[in-house]
Every structure is written in structure tokens, then in C-alpha cells.
Amino acid sequence: MAVDSGGSGLRVVVGTTRSGPLARDASTEPVRTGDRGIDPDHLMAQLLALVRPLAAGVGIGRLETAVVGAAGMASLGDALRAELPGALARELGVRRVALAADAVTAYVGALGPRPGAVVAAGTGLIAVGTDLSGWRRADGWGHLLGDCGGGAWIGRAGLEAALRAYDGREGGSARLLAHAEAVFGPAAGLPGRLYPRSDRPAVLASFAPRVGACAADGDPVARTILRAAARHMAEAAAAVCPAVDGVEPLVAVTGGLTGIGDPLLAPLAEELAERLPGARRVTAEGDPLHGSVRMATDLATDSFTLPGDDALLYVVVDARP
Fold first, then answer.
1. For the chain, which residues score pLDDT lower than 70?
2. Which value, in Å, is the radius of gyration of the alpha carbons in the chain?
3. CA of 315: how far to CAs of 110, 225, 311, in Å?
């Protein structure tokens, strides 16, 4: 079983080592967080509702290996690490479990078990790197304290530029103001519509494509925002990229933010070339769910080589109920 749990919901794949992935399903309800961090009971309830019919439909009686990649695992995963392996063993017969930050599954989906660095850029932003003996991370601190260059960061900067134009201050963009009012209504009411939202990061990130569109149309303010985002992304990659004697590290960028295209990716390529001249930029092979599938296959076939980490990658090889 391979799982990708994020801000937009839960995706699950079941399969076998011989045949690969056989069935998949998804839920659009994000796993709750509370006083204990990510809620293991809510995650299990969602998993069981998806996995049991999938496994029965393809004739799998017992799922012996599970990899769960979850957003927030590094900072909010204590309860998951304490309770999920036992719950998976009790309910599904799982014996081998890897609980991973979604940045790790994004890394494996992009590069596989090779030394390098991956920037996972979606609503938030985190970079992870490994020399295959340990992990390093940069950012991923959430939209209030970091995630610099991520979707929420770009969207917030775009809306700030819109409000600057509304006020008549320097640094404003009339184009971004027009887009902001088309999406959110009159500018004067934007704080009242945005601040009370519990899904504020996702709402901010929803404006990032508008910033990309304005940049593609030549808006200088939007272009400056995306250049700054590219700089933040490259800085995060440089902070985690390993130096391995005789090995050329790989660098990849993955996540929904890449959909902005050249207005972001062109300055990002320049920034990465400046900060990581000894690394080789490659296209991501797959997404975080692909990474979870690959990790589950390796774990099930005793070919798992990734280093463990208390926060980023927690592996249990003999889970018991």
C-alpha cells in the first residue's frame, strides 16, 4: 500500500511486488490536525474506507507493506509515529511500515534513491537533500513563518501588489488588482474575506497562477515576484544539496507550482545554475505518490536503501498490533 496525504486530500495505491500498482482511489478530505498533530484516527478511518474495497477488488488478502507520505509529518507526526504502525498491523496485517514526510516521497518520486536535492513546491515549499547517509531539509515552515517561494507566498505577494495599486502606493500592479477583484471581489473587502478562512494557505496559493499569467503578459511587478520566488527556491535547494566525492548530485523541482511554466521556471534555472554549478538539473521522474509506490516496493523486496530519520523517514520492519 502506498499513500500520499496532503492539503488536498488522500491518494492510495495497492498492488503487489510482482505486478506493481493494481488499483488506486482518492479522498478529497484532508486529514485533520489537532492538539496531537496529524490525527492518526482520522487518517486510519480514511485509509480503511479506501483500501479495503481496493484490496478486495484485486484479490489482495493482506497488505504486508505500507508507505505513508504525509504533509506535516516532520513537525506534526509524533502521534502518527506512535500509533499508526500498530493500527495498520491490527486492521490490515501490515508488518513493514515507512512513515515519511511528503518531501521525502516527493524526493524519491523525482530522483529515486540517488544523492541530490529536490524542491517540492506546491501550496508550501520545502527542499530535502540526501547523500544516502542522512537527510537535510530547508524551509517547509508554513505560510506564516516560511514556505518562501511557494504557491501561498507567491499568491500573497501578488495580492499585496494588487492592494498597493488600489492604494496608489509604489510597487503596485494594476493588472494584479484587476485579477484580484475578478477572483475575490472589491479590493477593500479582501481582508474580511481572506483572514477568517481556515484554508488561507490554499486560498493564497490559488492566486499564484494569476501572478504567473500577468508575468507571462509582461507585467514587471509579477515578473519581480516570480524572480524572487525562484531565488528562494534555489536558496533552499543549495542549502540541502550534498557534496559527495566523485558523484554529481542531481537537482529536481516537483509539485504543482511548476505548472506556472516559463515565467517561473526560466528564472529558476538561472538561479540554480548560479548557486549549484556542480549539480545536474534533471526532470522529476514522478510525483510523491510515485515515490510512495517506489519506496513500498523497495521495502517489500528488502532493497530499501534510504537513510532513516526520526522526523522525516520513520521505518518499522516488524509492526505489531
1. 319, 321
2. 21
3. 20, 40, 11
The values of phi and psi at residue 264, to 5°, are -100, -45
Cell of 140: 517547509
Q: Quick one: pLDDT at residue 305?
A: 87
State pTM to two decimals.
0.84
pLDDT tens for each residue of 301-313:
999 988 888 888 9
Q: For the segment 33-65, what is each residue's pLDDT rounded down to a tens digit?
A: 888 888 999 999 999 999 999 999 999 888 999
Alpha-carbon 18 to chain mean position: 28
Contact by Cβ (8 Å): 266, 31: no
